[in-house]
Specification:
mainly alpha, 2 domains, 3-stranded parallel β-sheet, 3 strands
């Protein structure tokens, strides 16, 4: 049983007086299609962030025995909610990379213009100190123009990818209901 995913799963536990409190009260759709409430989502996500990344996640809901709810509907509702979050983060990553590509084109064009401008300054002003300062300043401006696209492509997408992985884990988590 050591390789049993349930026995190695990290557990999130929630106690509610009414299962309906887990869902957004303004969402008019039936349970499998309803969004989780902001409070429930934040609680689950924050707890899940503290769990080991390699372990699967399991959710245990503690509900009063008087609150009968279809477990399969709850499973679908949670899965749908976090799958939608995965799609939203995928869209955010695509948008970020689009901004990165546009920024890179602008940055490279700026760098080329600055290098050419620096060379022109040396040609017109000679090789004196003023020409060198102006030329080096333009090159620095050209490289600074590439700071944002480099940040996006090297580091900016990591937090989004981590969040997407977390939401994927939450979309796949099994749910167990215990009556209290």
């Amino acid at each position: 049983m050591a390789n049993d995913p349930v026995s190695t799963a990290s557990v999130i536990e929630i106690r509610v007086e009414n299962v309906a409190l887990l869902f957004d009260p303004l969402d008019p759709f039936p349970t499998p299609s309803r969004d989780l409430s902001k409070t429930a989502e934040d609680f689950i996500v924050e707890w899940a962030r503290e769990l080991p990344r390699r372990n699967p996640i399991r959710l245990i809901l503690h509900v009063p025995s008087s609150d009968q709810h279809d477990l399969s509907e709850l499973q679908v509702a949670f899965s749908n909610h976090f799958s939608q979050r995965v799609r939203r983060v995928n869209s955010d990553i695509s948008e970020l990379f689009g901004v990165g590509r546009l920024s890179l084109m602008i940055g490279l064009a700026t760098l080329v213009a600055c290098v050419l401008g620096g060379q022109a300054a040396v040609m017109f002003l000679g090789s004196g100190s003023a020409a060198r300062i102006f030329s080096e300043g333009l090159i620095i401006i050209g490289w600074v123009a590439n700071w944002r696209p480099l940040e996006i492509f090297l580091y900016g997408w990591w937090p989004l990818a981590r969040r997407r992985t977390l939401y994927q884990r939450l979309a796949e988590m099994p749910i167990e209901v215990l009556t209290v």
